[in-house]
Design a protein that fits this description.
single chain, alpha+beta, 3-stranded antiparallel beta sheet, 38% helix, elongated
Length: 141
């Protein structure tokens, strides 16, 4: 549901909720060590830094430069439109559509056609920043 991307802090909070009462708290360094221990298995786990925001990637997929640039553009609002990318990155329609289609196929973004005149593309990995709560736990399908 998140394209294999999750905010490191959201992952930490989810792990804390799953632990038994009285267990040691999970800290960011615990997650970093666990991910580094998985590296020899070539499962694709790694931590990506988007301008100070740490995202855990859990799929064996190389993130290309265009995807990274669009995610960086969307990190403040958790969403973007085609027009946002055109203005923010100066790309042509074909490049934008190609990147967006790839991100949709991989599940990194979700499309919302109902809110505005143009489609909005949401990044589930960034939802935890909204109102300091985990919005991804509140979405109803």
């Amino acid at each position: 549901m998140n394209g294999g991307l999750i905010d490191l802090e959201e992952l930490r909070q989810r792990l804390i909720r799953r632990r038994l009462k009285g267990s040691e708290p999970v800290v960011e360094d615990d997650i970093k060590r666990a991910i580094s221990q998985l590296a020899p298995l070539k499962g694709g786990y790694r931590i990506i830094d988007f301008g100070g925001r740490k995202i855990v990637q859990s799929v064996a997929r190389e993130m290309n430069a265009d995807t990274s640039m669009v995610l960086s553009l969307a990190q403040q609002t958790c969403k973007f439109t085609i027009e946002d990318v055109r203005i923010g990155l100066g790309w042509d329609e074909h490049r934008i559509r190609s990147c967006v289609d790839d991100m949709l196929r991989s599940g990194i973004i979700w499309v919302d056609h109902q809110g505005s005149v143009m489609a909005e593309y949401w990044v589930p990995a960034f939802f935890s920043q909204i109102s300091g709560a985990s919005l991804s736990n509140k979405i109803i399908f």
